[in-house]
Amino acid sequence: MPEDARGQLDDGRFAFRALKDGRVVVSWYGRPVTTLAGKAAERFLARVAALDEHGAQLVMARVTGNFKRGNEKGRG
Questions:
Q1: % the chain with pLDDT above 90
Q2: Where are the domains of the chain?
Q3: Phi (first) and psi of residue 7, to 5 degrees
Q4: 72 Cβ contact partners less than 8 Å away, ≥ 6 residues apart
Q5: Please, which residues bridge with residue 6 across strands?
Q6: Which of 9, 21, 37, 42 is deepest in the core (most CB within 10 A)?
Q7: What Cα–Cα distance (Å) separates residue 42 from each residue in 6, 14, 19, 67, 76?
Q8: Alpha-carbon gap, residue 76 to 36, rounded angstroms
Q9: In this predicted model, what pLDDT tens digit does every residue of 11-42 receive, in sequence order?
Q10: In the chain, what is the straight-line distance between the N-terminal and C-terminal CA atoms, in Å?
């Protein structure tokens, strides 16, 4: 698993919420970034359940992809 070389994920910037319909919403500082559904959501939940908080942050960063392109306001 990749490392967080700059230590930027220590603040818990990513979070996820599993919905009743099986989808998973991954957010960054409380703002929804991506939604996973179907097999992708199942794989994500299984993977995150087996990891500690820091490992889960790395997985969430990976599934959100490179969503920042310089037009976000606020943190970052």
A1: 43
A2: 8-64
A3: 65, 25
A4: none
A5: none
A6: 9
A7: 29, 18, 12, 22, 29
A8: 23
A9: 668 899 999 999 999 998 899 999 999 999 99
A10: 24
